[in-house]
Amino acid sequence: IDLMHAQTDLALAGGLETQQARIAKAGRYVANAGMSLARIEIAASAAIALIGAGLTLSLLVIGAKAIEAGTLDGPLMAMLVIGGFAALEVFAPLRRGAIEMGRIAFSGRRLAALAQTEPAPDHRTIDAEGSAVELSGVTYRHGPHAAPVLENFSLSVRVGERVALTGKSGSGKSTLLSLIAGLAAPERGGIHIRDEGKRPALGLLTQQTELFRGTIAENLRIAAPDAPDAALWQALEVAELAGKIRGFPEGLAWQLGETGAGFSGGELRRLALARLVLRNPSIWLLDEPTAGMDEALAERVLANLGRHADGATMIVAAHHPREIALASRTVSLPGTKNA
User: Fold this and answer.
1) Do residues 46 and 98 make contact, with C-beta atoms less than 8 angstroms apart?
2) What is the rounded CA–CA span in Å between residue 339 and residue 333?
3) Could you tell me which of 225, 322, 236 has the C-alpha nearest to residue 277?
4) Cα dihedral angle (22, 23, 25, 29), rounded to 10 degrees?
5) Contact indicator for 148, 140 with CB cutoff of 8 Å
6) What is the pLDDT of residues 139-170, one digit of tens each?
7) Does the model's pTM come out above 0.85?
C-alpha cells in the first residue's frame, strides 16, 4: 500500500527499488511461513491419523482375543471400537494447537516479560485534602523531539465542579485526561488528585471503547464485581440502553462478541459509559461522551448523567456544544503556554 500511495515520492527520492526489495522480502517471508504452517498441519494431521489407526487396530486385536476367550460378545466389541473412534475427537484440537504453537510461545514470552516489569511510579500526589484536581506548571510532549502538547499548564478544579475542556483537535484535551488518570507522565510539573477513600477516586471514559467477549453483565461487572442485577439495570437506564437489553431473550446474559455484534458504535460507547456509571467515581473524566449519538439521545444521556453524578467532580473533553452545556466552567486549550 505504501508503494502504491507513495510511488512518486519514492521514485523522486530514489527509494523505489529499495521499497520493492522490502516488499519482495516480506512476500518471501509470508510464503515461507505459509509453507511451514502447512508442514506442521500435515505432520499433526498425519500423527493423529496414525494414532487413530493404531488405536483402532489395537482395539480390534484385543477385542478379537476377548471374543475367542468368550469374555466379550459381538455388540460389546462394536461398542469398544466405536468408543475408540469417539476418544480420538479429544485430540482433534491438538492439530490447531500445533499450528498456533509459534504464536502461543510468542504470547507466552510477552506475558513473562510483563510479569517481570516493575510498575512505573505514580507521578501524581494523592491525598484527601485540597482541590479535586490540581495541575501546576505541567509540560507534556509525545516524544523527546516533539513539540509540547501542553506547556507550563496549570488548572485547578474544585470538588463538585464540572469543567469542559475545549480547543481545536490536537490541543491536548485527551492528553490532559490521560495525565490526570495516570496513564501518562508529565515532563515537568505536578498533578494532585483528591481521594477521600469513600469510593473510587477516578473514572475515565476514553474515545476508544474497550469491551470484551462475554455477557453484558460480565462486561459491566468489570467495574463492580459484586454489583447486583438491579444496579446493572440502573446503570443501563442512565446510558439509555436498558430498553435494548430488555429486548434480548437472554437479557443481561446476552453474549457480546469480540466485535460487538448487535450493537452500533454509539451503543457500544454507551455500554462503556454504563460501566463507568456502575463504578460511580468521585471524579469523572469523560472524553467525547456523546460520540455516535443523535442530538435527542445525547441530550437524554447527558441529563441522566448530570442527575446521577450530582455532587461529583466532572472534567469533560468536549467536542460538541451539548457537552459544554453540561459544565459550569469552560477551559480553552489553545496550545499556548498557559490556560
Assistant:
1) no
2) 6
3) 236
4) 140
5) yes
6) 998 888 888 889 899 999 999 999 999 988 87
7) no
